[in-house]
Amino acid sequence: MYSEGKHATNLFYIIKGKVKTSKRHDNGKELITGLYNEGDYFGYTPLLSGGLYQDTAEAMEDAEVALIPKSDFESLMNGNPSVQRRLIQMLANNMAEKEEQLLGIAYNSLRRKVADALLALDKKYNAANSVHFSIDISRDNLAAVAGVAKESLIRTLGDFRDEKLISIREGEIILEDRKKLERLLN
Predict the structure, then answer these.
(1) Around Cβ 146, how many Cβ atoms within 10 Å?
(2) 0.90 cut: is pTM over it?
């Protein structure tokens, strides 16, 4: 949808599907900076700063996304205080999430990072709070969400499966014991 370093020209709204935003390090490692679902807006920060996209956005599955031109976004912002308030809330939530993510990547153990990534995905995509919800995400993307190496992620998922914290069916991950995942020691 957009690439890091390109001029911001649109606000994006997800009608259907899932989208990720990510940054790549010089060594090729990817860190997922945002996960978006139906009903989410993204790409608004560089529109507000008048700058460049700071990450890359791509669909994680078939997606239908509406593009809102920068001029329409600015008109809506300038003429509607309720839109301004909503955007400020989105920015504040986004900033708090990013701070949590950075602290976790910097200081959490491998097991805690993987558990937090699984719980974050469950919270993001399991709106109905279904007990049998399955997380369908590639191991590469899950490793990028957790900020860990793919090989380490796979070993940790195996440990979690052996400990009956998760089950894995046809590549999809089912959280069997959310409470224990939440209480894992760091």
Answers:
(1) 28
(2) no
